[in-house]
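User: For documentation purposes, I need each entry recorded in a consistent format: the amino acid sequence on its own, followed directly by the corresponding C-alpha cells. There are two entries in this batch. Please keep commentary to a minimum and don't merge the entries.

Assistant: Recorded as requested. Entry 1:
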Amino acid sequence: MTLQRKIGFWLSAFAIFAAVVWILRDVLMPFAAGMVLAYLLDPLADRLEKWGLGRMGASLLILIAFVLLFVMLLVVAVPLLGTQVMAFIEKAPGYVTRLQILLVEQGGPLLQKVGGEKALDDLQTSLGDFVGKAMSWLGTFLTSIWSGGQALLGILSLLVVTPVVAFYILLDWDRMVARVDSWVPVDQRETVRQIMGDIDTAISSFLRGQTLVCLILGGMYAVGLMLVGLNFGLLIGISAGLLSFIPYVGSMLGLVVSVGVAIAQFWPDWTMVGLVLLVFGIGQFIEGYILSPKLVGESVGLHPVWLMFALIAAGSLFGFLGLLIAVPVSAAIGVLVRFAIKQYLASPLYSGRSGLATESGDASAASDG
C-alpha cells in the first residue's frame, strides 16, 4: 500500500469514527463513561492481581467500592452544592450591582478627571455588557453540554449502565489489548506498539494525574475559602478545583469570582480580600511546584491551548460525551502528529537527499558521456 493510500485509509477511518460518534452521541455517554472508568481503574486492578486476587474478584471489588463512593457523594454533596448553586444564582446580580457601585464610588472621580462624565458612563455600560455576555456564553455552553447528555444522565445510566460496562471492560481489558495487538501487521507491530505506548503514557499521565490534582485543589480551595468566611466558599472552591482540569481556566475563574464576591462582601476590609488572594496563591504554588510535577509529570505532551480548544470544541459539539473523549482523542492526535513530524524530518522529502543524489547521478552520467 502506497503512502497516499495509507493516509487516505486512516483519514477515512477517522471520518467514519467521528460520524458514528456524532450520530450516536445521545446513547454513547454511559458506554464512553464506562470505558473511561475502566481505563482509570485498570492499574488498581493489576495491583490487586499482583497481591493474589483474581481478575474477576479485583474488578468486582473495585466497582462495588466505586459505586458506594459515588452514591455517598450523590447523597451528601449534591444536595449541599445544589442549594449553594441556587443561592449563588439568586445573589449574583446583587454582587454585580454592588461591584459596579463600588467601582463608580472609588474610581469615578479619577475617571471623570481623565475622560469626563461620558467615560464613566461608557465604563458602566461596558462592564454591564461584558458581564451579561459572559453569563450568556456560559449558560449557552452549559446548556449544550447538558442537552448533549441529558437523555441518559439519569440514575439508571449512572448507577447501572456505566458500572456494568466498566466492570466487563475492566474484566477483559488485558485480553482485549492482546487481541487488538495480534491484529496489527507483523512488520508494523513494533512501530504501532511504540505509538500506542506513547498515547497511553500521555493519556494516563494527564487523566489520572490531573484528576488527583483537581480533587486535591478543590478540597484546598474549598477549605481555605470557608476558613476565610467567604460566602459560597465551598461552591467556588470545589468548582475552581474541578475546572482546573482545563489548564489555567479553573484557577483564574475561581480567583476572579472569589475576589469579586470578597469585595462585595467585605468592603472596605482589604485584609479579607488579601486572604482570599492568599488562598489561591498558595494553591497555585502547591499545584505548580508539588502536585503537577509529582502527579502529572512533564512527559504528557498536551499543550494547554490545544487542550482548552479540544475540551471546549468537543463539549460544544457532543455535550458531556465530548468532554469524556476530548482528552484521550486530543492526546492521541498529538502523539500521531509528533510521530508524523518526526518521520517527515527523517525523510528525504525534508533533507532533500534524494534530489541531491539524482542531480549527482545525472552529472556523473553527463561526464561519462
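Entry 2:
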Amino acid sequence: MWQYEKKLQYPVNIKNPNPKYAQIIISQYGGPDGELGASMRYLTQRYSMPYNEVKGILTDIGTEELAHLEMVCAMVYQLTKNLTEKQIIESGFDKYFVDHTTGVYPIAASALPWRAEYIQAKGDILADLHEDLAAEQKARVTYDNLLRLIDDPDVRDPLKFLRQREIVHYQRFGEALRLTADKLDSKNFYACNPSFDKNCGK
C-alpha cells in the first residue's frame, strides 16, 4: 500500500534545543487532537465507507497524518537533544525525563498519555465524516495555539506547514461529505445507514 521515502514530508531543522517547546508540541503527537489519533481514526474509518471515492480520501489523509506524526516526533526529538541536567530541571522537563528520558512518548501537553478514546469509528458515513471535519478544525486550533506560544522561526516554520495541511484536510473532508450527499437521497440521508443496511432507501 505504501512506498516509504526516507525523508520528512517537510524539513525540520531546529538549531536551538528547547524542552519547554517540546512539552507543548508533543500534544500534536499524543494529545486528544494530535496526529497519532488522526491517522488511526481515518485509516480505521475507511473500512466501513461504502463509496470508493470517500474511502480513497480517508486513505490519503490517514497516510499523510502518519507523515505529520513523523514530523512532530522529529521536532520533539530535536528540541530535547543533548540537554544538560540544568536545562532539564529549569525547564520543568524533569518529570517527563524521569519516565521517558528523552524518548518520544505519545502524551498530551497536559501529561495525559494517548488514549484510544481520542478516535472514533462509528461505522456510519455521515457520523464519521462530521467527526473528521471537527477533528481537523480542532487540530488547526491546536497549531494556532502553539504558534501563539512559540517564537523560534525554526520551530514555527514546520508548525505553519502542518497547520496549513489541517485546512486542506478539512476541505477534502468537505468534498467527501458532498460526494456522500450526492449519493444519498431524501429517503436514506438520515433514516438509515447505507454501509450497514442493504435495503437502505428502497
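Summary note for entry 2:
The first helix runs from residue 19 to 25.
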